[in-house]
Amino acid sequence: MIHIEGRQSSSLNGLWNVIIDPFDAGSGDWAAYYKDRKPLKNTDFVESAFEGGPQLYVPGDFNSQLPELNYYESSIWYKRSFNVQKTEDRRFFLHFAAINYKAEVYLNGSKIGEHEGGFTPFQFEVTDLLKGGENSLIVKVNNQRMKDGIPGLGFDWFNYGGITRDVDLVQTPKTYIKDYFIQLAQHNENTIDGYVSLDGPSKEQDIEINIPELHVRFKTRTDKEGKAILKFPFRKKTLWTPENPKLYEVRVSAETDHIKEQIGFRTIKVDGTNILLNGKAIFLKGINIHEEVPQRRSRAYSESDYQMLLEWAKDLGCNYVRLVHYPHHEKMVKMAEKMGLMVWEELPIYQGIDFTNADMKEKMNLMLKEMIARDKNRAATIIWSLSNETYSSPPRDSSLTALYYLAKSLDNTRLVTSAFNNMRFEGNKAYIEDKLNSLMDVMAINQYLGWYKPWPETDKEVEWISKFNKPLIFSEFGGEAVFGNNIDPNRASSWSEDYLADIYMRQFKMFKNIPFLSGATPWLLVDFRSPGRAHPIYQKGWNRKGLLSDRGEKKKAWYIVADQFINNFN
Questions:
Q1: With CB atoms 3.0 to 4.6 Å apart as the test, which of 9, 23, 133, 470 could cross-link to 170 if both were Cys?
Q2: Which ranges constitute the DSSP H helices of 416-474?
């Protein structure tokens, strides 16, 4: 089940009982926390219990909820009891919006499945395992970094663990609408392309797509596999744009099930070095955002969290956001869509990924499929990004090439890219050379001139040279500064606001001389936690590249970016 909004469901959010398991002992037969054993006889001896121990809120990371878990990286067992009234004509699914990083799920003492990947949804059917009345759900969560994980052992953000997003018990009919894709055709904005698929014993059914506001009705029928291909004219509509983020109620009906959702319609494509939204060239004015609330030092998990982050982006003058370096909550993507913000979504295929590992292909494919399956009907989502700052090698090149073609096979209505940071400098010339740019729909470059890379000769501007006839997005640029620190503005090592402001002024001056530039995305919106940032005076476990401080205070660089986005890139 891909879409649960509007379905009959029961939230399992709230306080869960937990057992903290630092030595990862609870899976063994002797401890067996998943059995939740109780002493029944006077001679019974049980050395674990959920009752009487700590409790944690779901959704939420565990690191921010208990002081002793601040840097915790191991297993925690969660338990929640819930009641169900079963009926013979219904199916039941446990749906997890995300758990970081590995999860094992047990229902009434039986293991029902496991999942790897910290930022995409998954579910298990539990129709036959549920009991009428009270049921016990236990989830083992482990956020320990892994060499063969995605991301790997090292990454520049905080490793928040736990059941970080919503948990729901969802009901469906015996045969239900499992999936649907309803978007404008890539090469014809007057046509809807897509599909509807059913799951259950009655796969051949009549299907109707209804858009009441436009008086659109399209009827078709699923085949014996439960799938119906959609293709019908769609002319008199308002296209989704940042200025007018129009959404329509779309109803999908089968004989045994129906579902409705708010969907917007637009086209996004490339023509030479231009990015075209609805056929018109657009400049992407964006900001990078981590899914973190710095004031609370926690993972963002509520609608008020997402609203705060996205309103900051709107105040900056952005028309798009790059949600890094992993898929953010579906609710944040939907909120961005309603606010008129285009979205770049990204897989956590980050620095240090072992592309030679035979298991890596399957893990990368699964994460890509889960990301696209969840958000393929979002008009706001215009870019699927496959990776960030990986380095060219035959295994990497072949892996990302295969991912690119998989993305296109799943969804050909969006742009696909990867953010690279390997370029060559000669004098005042910067050459974009990563050969995978010839495959990607747009070029995305992370560059930190003035910070990790010195500026070329002071009397010359940087000339960017590309042999690829593609639009360029600077997916990252900037530097670090501590809010209120204005000492020694001429040295990067001072973490001075004035030094950072100078970086941004020079960057925007440079941008005006790049004819194939179609987007700029400062790194980043707000300071965020990163334990590897170890300077004892200026960083203290924080990456200080935010335009806002960890308390939401505007650095001088904020005003430079806002002025450029609002007044100079219209």
A1: 9
A2: none
pLDDT tens-digit readout, 260-289? 999 999 999 999 999 999 999 999 999 999
Return the structure tokens found at 526: 């707000």
pTM of the model: 0.96
- Domain limits, CATH 3.20.20.80, in the chain: 270-568
How many CA atoms does the CB half-sphere of 498 hold within 13 Å? 8
Q: What is the pLDDT of residues 145-197, one digit of tens each?
A: 999 999 999 899 999 999 999 999 999 999 999 999 999 998 889 999 999 99
Span(s) in the chain for CATH 2.60.120.260 = 4-173
- In the predicted model, what is the mean pLDDT of residues 495-505? 94
Residue type, 217: R
Can you identify the CATH homologous superfamily of domain 4-173? Galactose-binding domain-like (2.60.120.260)
Under the phi-then-psi rule, with left for phi > 0, alpha for psi from -120 to 50, and beta for the rest, what region is 109?
A: left
The conformation of residue 213, written as its DSSP 8-state character, comes to G
- Between the CA of residue 357 and those of 147, 148, 349, 362, what are the distances in Å? 10, 7, 13, 10
Question: What secondary structure letter does DSSP report for 403?
Answer: H
What HEC string does 491-529 produce? Answer: CHHHCCHHHHHHHHHHHHHHHCCCCCEEEECCCCCECEE
Distances in Å between the Cα of 95 and the Cα atoms of 167, 197, 366, 489 are 6, 19, 17, 51
3-state secondary structure 291-304: CEECCCCEECCCHH
Specify the CATH superfamily of domain 176-266. Answer: Immunoglobulins (2.60.40.10)
Q: Name residues whose C-beta falls within 8 Å of residue 67's C-beta, 6 or more positions apart in sequence.
A: none
> What are the start and end residues of each CATH 2.60.40.10 domain in the chain?
176-266
Closest alpha carbon to 513 in 426, 427, 430 = 430
Task: Please tell me the number of Cα atoms within 13 Å of 411 on its side-chain side.
Answer: 31
Average pLDDT over residues 9-15: 97
Residue 458 has pLDDT above 70, yes or no: no
Is the CATH number of domain 270-568 3.30.540.10? Answer: no
Three-class secondary structure of residue 171 per DSSP: strand
77, pLDDT greater than 70 = yes
